[in-house]
């Protein structure tokens, strides 16, 4: 009788990555957006004031990300995941208890840092450790969690808020993160495959298309490579444009005569398009690499901005949100896989932490441009960023110790 083949741990790692990414949604922009007006009304603040505190929280909350990345490099994702999960849950509770501007800014800082710079970073670290040849597809599956979160969490939050208030809604989200993600993290999160006498890519032998790494770069070496600055610019575009347009969505469509309920429904198109984009983006990365796939995502992002400027009401507002979702999904998968592909595993966590910090600057600056100047100024700045990133992607040489295809 033939021996029964054991399930490779890589499948559990992929599932855990998907769930972990889903559980970052309460701290993602799409998860926070439905609460903005409720928070402003309850705390007697203007919408722009809440957005300013959110931007500051985004900026300062993610600053520890390089340190968290170094911890994941040193101790492995399995030993760090418990702290990340508890932090996200506690941050949701902190949001429910805010009483004024100071506590709101502090809670936003805690929430953004723990979700994106904590749970999201550690989860991505694990995926990149366990997949090489299938890294694009594995990151795509993981990013499906973010898209699914965008489909489920905003509507769920609205329902709970309508029935019990926004503070109870945050408490429910925090309890859900702890009850679901903590067991998943303890049971399924893994460190490097070698620690379990296993191999990446489901144990399959690499074929001749698999990328071969000629070395791994240190943080300082990577920062001297032009290619690193291409991906940093991609992180700024991804976060600045995504955050600004999602947070400005209700105002933009209200100005076009589209009511709030219809506008919130249209937000659901963004994660649906992200689902399509992350699957397609993962396949493109495994075939073309993160550089070329990033250029495709940037082109779609530029089209979304042009659509907002020229015809935000096109197809009832569905056109620009569809393009936005496609671009965000593509660039999110690129950001997840780029550091390991081009700079190796030696300082992957620290490098991804730096990308998170730079992206946070983008996420903080995007809405602030709208608040300090005007949406028109913001759109022009975003198109400039897209153009600069595209030029860097086209003309940057491959890093000296990168993977050769």
Q: Nearest-angstrom radius of gyration? A: 20 Å
CATH class: Mainly Alpha
Q: Which geometry do the CA atoms define?
A: globular
- How much helical structure, as a percent, in the residues? over 70%
Number of domains: 1
| Strands ordered across the widest β-sheet | 1-2
- Fraction of residues in β-strands: under 5%
CATH fold call: Growth Hormone, Chain: A
Number of beta strands: 2
**In CATH, what is the homologous superfamily?**
MFS general substrate transporter like domains
Q: What is the N-to-C succession of helices and strands?
A: HHHHHHHHHEHHHHHHHHE
Roughly how many Å apart are the termini? 42 Å
Instruction: Estimate the mean pLDDT confidence.
Output: 84
Please provide a written account of the structure.
The protein has 405 residues and is mainly alpha-helical. It has a single domain (9-193, 215-397), classed as MFS general substrate transporter like domains (Growth Hormone, Chain: A, Up-down Bundle). Helices cover 77% and strands 1% of the residues. It has 17 helices and 2 strands. Strands 1-2 form a two-stranded antiparallel ribbon. The N and C termini lie far apart (42 Å).
């Amino acid at each position: 009788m033939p021996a029964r083949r054991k399930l490779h741990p890589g499948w559990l790692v992929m599932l855990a990555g998907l769930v972990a990414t889903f559980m970052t949604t309460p701290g993602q922009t799409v998860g926070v957006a439905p609460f903005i007006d409720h928070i402003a009304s309850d705390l007697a603040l203007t919408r722009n004031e809440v957005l300013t505190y959110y931007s500051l929280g985004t900026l300062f909350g993610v600053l520890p990300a390089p340190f968290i990345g170094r911890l994941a490099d040193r101790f492995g994702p399995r030993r760090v995941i418990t702290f990340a999960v508890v932090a996200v849950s506690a941050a949701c509770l902190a949001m429910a208890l805010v009483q004024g501007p100071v506590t709101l800014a502090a809670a936003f800082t805690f929430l953004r840092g723990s979700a994106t710079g904590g749970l999201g970073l550690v989860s991505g670290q694990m995926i990149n450790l366990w997949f090489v040849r299938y890294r694009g597809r594995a990151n795509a599956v993981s990013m499906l969690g973010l898209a699914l979160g965008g489909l489920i969490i905003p509507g769920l939050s609205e329902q709970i808020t309508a029935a019990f208030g926004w503070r109870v809604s945050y408490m429910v989200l925090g309890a859900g993160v702890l009850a679901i993600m903590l067991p998943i993290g303890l049971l399924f999160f893994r460190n490097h495959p070698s620690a379990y006498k296993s191999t990446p890519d489901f144990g399959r032998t690499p074929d001749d298309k698999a990328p071969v790494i000629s070395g791994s770069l240190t943080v300082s070496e990577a920062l001297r490579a032009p290619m690193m600055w291409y991906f940093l610019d991609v992180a700024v575009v991804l976060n600045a444009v995504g955050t600004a347009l999602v947070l400005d969505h209700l105002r933009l469509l209200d100005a076009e005569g589209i009511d709030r309920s219809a506008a919130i429904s249209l937000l659901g198109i963004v994660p649906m398009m992200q689902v399509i984009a992350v699957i397609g983006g993962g396949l493109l990365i495994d075939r073309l690499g993160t550089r070329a796939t990033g250029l495709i995502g940037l082109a779609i992002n530029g089209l979304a901005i042009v659509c907002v400027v020229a015809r935000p009401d096109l197809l009832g507002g569905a056109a620009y949100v569809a393009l936005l979702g496609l671009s965000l999904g593509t660039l999110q998968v690129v950001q997840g896989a780029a550091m390991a592909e081009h700079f190796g595993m030696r300082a992957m966590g620290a490098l991804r932490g730096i990308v998170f910090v730079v992206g946070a600057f983008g996420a903080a600056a995007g809405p602030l441009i709208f608040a300090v100047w005007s949406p028109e100024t913001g759109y022009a700045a975003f198109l400039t960023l897209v153009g600069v990133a595209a030029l860097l992607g086209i003309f940057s040489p491959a890093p000296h110790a990168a993977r050769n295809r």
